[in-house]
């Protein structure tokens, strides 16, 4: 089981093997209880979906996992490290996309993707004195960025500015930046937002290709597009008003009456799903 | 009246190059930390005092220049790590108030330690113009200033465009949180921004002081005012804007001083500043969204 309340774990591997494990996390913003005793684990090689209505706390939980939001209580382990700071994530093999685009407006597309390799850049001193290691890093980072851009179908766009691209292509740039470091855990925050049906299909292919390309690669996907989540994910967790409402396989979630009432609505097999 | 146009243009460009370098120091901090560093002038003056004493002790101007760079970098590091890092970022006025406090502390300390008298600072090259025939063209010192600032600009351009740390600094300047998630040590980039900025500011002040009355605790005050105007005119986010606006304002002020008198120079600066703020408040070279960010 990949998504689970920790005491009920039934998989053979020890908890430390999970790339991501949040246990009994509570987050308060002033007087608002944003996350209420929620637990979530993403096992190695699993694609896990996190769904829920607007304001359920999905992005907050993402931010807890990334070290951006500090939980009031609970434990957070990412790639076996207790509550790593955000700048350490890529070094640990974790990449994240943001709900918006999160691209750097003054950098070219290639430079935006290269920024995903910043954790491996030589130190400031090497850069300041123009050490060969710094030039070598840039050369290799540029090559890897081009490969990542080609992977998302943007070969040849490296010299362009992100703002000159259509929105769906900018989404791909953000995805290429997440891919470029070859992460073992990919955190995708609403990657289908603003995309059309054909583009969502292409996105699903890219994520499938990533997760299936190498054993042990994991994905945590926050998304409102239920069809995409159902088709991509092995396990799904449903968050509602900060509480973990249900976890299970896509079929189990479809049949969960509490989830239907709170989020999915009726006729989950068809286009009426939320 | 025989107007030495070439000489005025050369002198103006050299003056403008110094404005540009000092404005670039302000832009570096703005991009790194979103702080308008009102203490830049006072910090640069400290570097000049270090340079002054090193030059006096060793008799070597170049050691003094190196000392200005190093002491500027150290002071920038200390100010960021020891003071600015602890300033409440959610309140934009907090950093301004702290910077003004820093000006008072630094200038008072300099005055207590060294007195308020002007001390003449030597220039490493003559300030008398080179003549081609009967035409005064440019002074060796102005040529030296232009060369130093050109090397400085080139080095900074290479740093920002050809190194990993430059890419990280640019990324951190545009979007700190996203940068963090991509492995950038944003705090370190901020410190590096302050360190570089203070070194550049110290160098710029060292170049201007031999052309002014001399060194005293307020020697860089006017340079700060001009350079701040340059940074606003060019766009606080734009290094290119700082360079272009610096050179332009340097030339304009030199011609205004020559034709209308020195008292009109500050008026010209205010007119330029008001004009740009009215027509293009984000600065001539900055993107609108960048200034708001």
Please explain how this structure is put together.
The complex is a heterodimer of chains A (274) and B (293). Chain A is built from 10 helices and 10 strands. With 274 residues, chain A is α/β, with parallel strands linked by helices. Chain A folds into 2 domains: 185 residues, Rossmann fold (3-Layer(aba) Sandwich), CATH 3.40.50; 74 residues, no CATH class. In chain A, helix 5 packs across helix 6. The N terminus and C terminus of chain A are likely disordered. Chain B is mainly α and 293 residues long. Chain B contains 12 helices and 2 strands. The termini of chain B are far apart. The C terminus of chain B is likely disordered. At the A-B interface, helix 2, helix 4 and helix 5 of A face helix 5, helix 6, helix 7 and helix 8 of B.
Interface with most residues:
A-B, 40 and 29 residues
The tally of strands of chain A reads: 10
Low-confidence stretches of chain B: 288-293
CATH architectural designation of the largest domain in chain A: 3-Layer(aba) Sandwich
Beta-strand content of chain A: 15-25%
Question: Could you provide a short overview of the structure?
Answer:
The complex is a heterodimer of chains A (274) and B (293). With 274 residues, chain A is α/β, with parallel strands linked by helices.
């Amino acid at each position: 089981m990949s998504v689970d309340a920790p005491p009920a774990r039934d998989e053979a591997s020890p908890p430390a093997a999970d790339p991501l494990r949040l246990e009994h996390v509570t987050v308060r913003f002033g007087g608002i209880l944003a996350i209420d005793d929620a637990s979530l684990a993403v096992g190695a090689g699993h694609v896990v979906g996190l769904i829920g209505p607007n304001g359920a706390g999905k992005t907050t939980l993402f931010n807890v996992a990334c070290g951006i939001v500090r939980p009031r209580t609970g434990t957070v382990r990412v790639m076996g490290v207790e509550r790593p700071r955000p700048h350490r994530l890529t070094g640990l093999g974790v990449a994240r996309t943001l709900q918006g685009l999160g691209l750097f407006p003054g950098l070219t597309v290639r430079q935006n993707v290269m920024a995903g390799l910043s954790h491996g850049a030589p130190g400031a001193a090497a850069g300041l004195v123009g050490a060969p290691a710094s030039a070598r890093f840039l050369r290799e980072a540029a090559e890897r960025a081009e490969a990542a851009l080609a992977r998302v179908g943007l070969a040849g766009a490296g010299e362009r500015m992100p703002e000159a691209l259509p929105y769906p292509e900018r989404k791909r740039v953000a995805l290429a930046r997440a891919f470029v470091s070859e992460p073992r855990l990919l955190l995708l925050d609403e990657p289908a937002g603003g995309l059309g049906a054909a583009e969502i299909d292409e996105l699903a292919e890219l994520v499938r290709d990533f997760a299936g390309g190498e054993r042990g690669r994991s994905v945590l996907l926050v998304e409102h597009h239920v069809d995409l989540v159902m088709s991509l994910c092995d396990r799904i967790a449903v968050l509602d008003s900060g509480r973990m409402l249900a976890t299970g396989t896509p079929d189990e979630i479809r049949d969960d009456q509490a989830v239907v009432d709170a989020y999915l609505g009726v006729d989950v097999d068809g286009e009426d799903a939320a | 009246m025989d107007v030495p146009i070439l000489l005025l243009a050369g002198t103006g460009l050299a003056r403008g190059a110094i404005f540009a370098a000092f404005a670039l120091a302000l832009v570096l901090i703005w991009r790194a930390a979103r702080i308008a560093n009102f203490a830049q002038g006072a910090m640069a003056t400290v570097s000049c005092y270090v340079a002054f004493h090193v030059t006096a002790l060793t008799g070597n101007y170049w050691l003094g220049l190196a000392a200005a760079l190093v002491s500027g970098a150290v002071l920038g590091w200390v100010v960021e790590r020891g003071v600015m890092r602890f300033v409440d970022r959610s309140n934009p006025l907090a950093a301004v108030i702290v910077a003004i406090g820093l000006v008072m502390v630094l200038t008072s300390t300099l005055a207590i330690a060294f007195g308020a008298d002007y001390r003449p600072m030597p220039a490493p090259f003559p300030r008398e113009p080179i003549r081609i025939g009967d035409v005064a063209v440019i002074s060796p010192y102005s040529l030296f200033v232009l060369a130093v600032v050109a090397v400085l600009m080139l080095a900074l351009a290479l740093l920002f465009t050809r190194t990993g740390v430059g890419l990280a600094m640019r990324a951190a300047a545009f979007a700190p949180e996203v940068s963090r998630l991509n492995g950038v040590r944003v705090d370190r980039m901020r410190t590096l921004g302050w360190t570089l900025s203070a070194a550049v500011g110290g160098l710029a002040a060292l170049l201007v002081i031999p052309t002014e009355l001399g060194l005293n605790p307020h020697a860089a005050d006017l340079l700060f005012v001009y350079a701040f105007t340059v940074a606003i005119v060019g766009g606080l986010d734009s290094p290119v804007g700082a360079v272009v606006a610096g050179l332009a304002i340097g030339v304009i002020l030199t011609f205004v001083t020559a034709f209308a008198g020195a008292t009109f120079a500050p008026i010209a600066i205010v007119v330029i500043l008001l004009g740009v703020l009215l027509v293009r408040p984000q600065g001539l070279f900055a993107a609108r969204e960048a200034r708001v960010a």
